[in-house]
């Protein structure tokens, strides 16, 4: 973890996965999701014409089962389920109507001693497509998720089969995992870059972990879990408006203005994300603040710096994630052929070996067209290795 985002809760949470195959990115963002889910709407930043709460949508994306996407997510659910009172946890397939019913909570408002209805919690989806797919998205789940991310004080949800429902004091954190292939099945292509995906922080990992045949729990493992649960429990008493220190105000203003102008040069598919990037920054910063355990509500410059480091780490991979999601079936197959070549010893492979590996998915003519595309785009070249003609991956600029 970069030193800028070291904190009590997050450093302890990520320590649970030392000497395992869980990527540090997944561990860190699972910890952030833990904090966001506990904070609910109890802390906020007043931005005059809108209010920012610390809830987030976080989706892990990785191709291989060896990336251990689910391990960190399962730990998040395990810890949150032991906090009392903890957030409402939804971990099953839902229709939009069922999600509303699952999240609706009635609690006592200590200020006026009245019952106060809210609609919020955390969705934990080890396989995102089991919760969100094209069918449920188009039936209204996508629109509902947008409203829950926005944390509206009041909004109306309309369906054909049920009367109009008023949802009050809504909020939702989402922590899910998927492969690129399954993500294509969860979100319609035309929705990429729109209001929903611009609210999602995609945490992408494509580097295989160092194998750990038998992960061992340290003697402190269970003690650390108990400390984490106590920390999460303490967050239930954190409540009120978050204020900027003078240094944090200056940093945020400068960062906002710089990104505002830089974002105009981005690919149009990232414009929606860029328009919400300041909100992502503040949401992450609030979680880093709460993770320190100081109990105060002052957002300092190091919280914003840490949030910036965390977001920039994800943003570097965002074009890769989007491009792989929106690519056509031919593009997907081209990507798989390229990755097969890159993964071969010395990044090189013979035509006959390629044909053998893809013989059940395409014929020789189709493979030839893909090889031609990769060659003309200068991603591979024909080379002679050990007296044998082979296709070799060309490394991009470092």
**Which regions are unreliable across 5 or more consecutive residues at pLDDT < 50?**
1-7
* Helix-and-strand structural type: alpha/beta
How many domains would you count in the coordinates?
Answer: 2
Q: How far do the termini sit from each other?
A: 23 Å
Number of strands: 16
Mean pLDDT: 87
What CATH calls the topology of the largest domain is Rossmann fold
Secondary-structure element order, as H and E?
A: HHEEEHEHEEHEEEHEHEEHHEHHHEHHEE
Radius of gyration: 23 Å
CATH C-level name of the largest domain: Alpha Beta
Q: Describe the main β-sheet briefly.
A: 6 strands, mixed
**What overall form do the CA principal axes indicate?**
globular
> Approximately how much beta-strand content do the residues carry?
15-25%
Q: Please give the share of residues in helix.
A: 40-55%
Write the layout of secondary structure elements.
Blueprint (H helix, E strand, L loop, with lengths): L7 H8 L8 H16 L3 E4 L4 E2 L4 E5 L7 H13 L7 E2 L5 H8 E6 L4 E12 L8 H17 L3 E4 L7 E4 L1 E9 L1 H7 L13 E5 L16 H15 L4 E2 L1 E2 L1 H17 L8 H21 L6 E2 L1 H15 L2 H9 L2 H15 L4 E2 L1 H7 L6 H13 L3 E6 L2 E6 L5
Parallel strand pairs: 1-11, 3-9, 3-10, 4-6, 6-9, 12-13
Antiparallel strand pairs: 1-2, 5-6, 7-8, 14-16, 15-16
């Amino acid at each position: 973890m970069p030193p800028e985002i070291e904190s009590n809760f997050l450093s302890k949470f990520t320590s649970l996965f030392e000497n395992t195959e869980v990527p540090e990115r997944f561990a860190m963002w699972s910890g952030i999701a833990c904090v966001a889910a506990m904070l609910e709407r109890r802390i906020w930043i007043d931005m005059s014409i809108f209010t920012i709460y610390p809830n987030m949508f976080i989706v892990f994306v990785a191709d291989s089962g060896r990336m251990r996407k689910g391990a960190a997510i399962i730990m998040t659910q395990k810890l949150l389920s032991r906090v009392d009172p903890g957030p409402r946890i939804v971990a099953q397939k839902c229709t939009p109507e069922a999600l509303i019913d699952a999240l609706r909570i009635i609690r006592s408002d200590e200020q006026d001693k009245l019952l106060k209805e809210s609609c919020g919690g955390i969705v934990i989806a080890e396989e995102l497509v089991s919760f969100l797919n094209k069918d449920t998205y188009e039936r209204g789940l996508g629109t509902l998720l947008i409203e829950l991310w926005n944390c509206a004080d009041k909004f109306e949800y309309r369906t054909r089969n049920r009367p109009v429902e008023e949802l009050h004091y809504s909020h939702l954190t989402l922590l899910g995992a998927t492969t690129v292939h399954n993500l294509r099945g969860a979100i319609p292509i035309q929705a990429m870059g729109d209001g929903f995906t611009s609210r999602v922080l995609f945490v992408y990992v494509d580097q295989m972990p160092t194998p750990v045949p038998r992960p061992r729990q340290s003697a402190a493992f269970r003690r650390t879990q108990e400390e984490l649960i106590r920390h999460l429990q303490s967050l239930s008493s954190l409540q009120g408006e978050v204020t900027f220190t003078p240094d944090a105000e200056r940093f945020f203003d400068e960062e906002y203005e710089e990104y505002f102008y830089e974002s105009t040069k981005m690919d149009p598919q990232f414009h929606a994300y860029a328009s919400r990037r300041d909100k992502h920054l503040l949401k992450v910063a609030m979680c880093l603040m709460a993770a320190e355990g100081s109990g105060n509500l002052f957002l300092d410059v190091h919280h914003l710096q840490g949030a910036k480091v965390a977001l920039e780490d994800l943003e570097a991979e965002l074009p890769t994630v989007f491009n792989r999601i929106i690519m056509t079936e031919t593009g997907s197959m081209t990507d798989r052929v390229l990755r097969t070549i890159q993964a071969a010893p010395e990044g090189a492979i013979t035509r006959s070996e390629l044909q053998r590996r893809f013989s059940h998915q395409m014929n020789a003519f189709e493979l030839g067209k893909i090889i031609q595309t990769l060659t003309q785009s200068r991603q591979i070249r024909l080379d002679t290795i050990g007296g044998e003609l082979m296709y070799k991956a060309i490394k991009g600029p470092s």
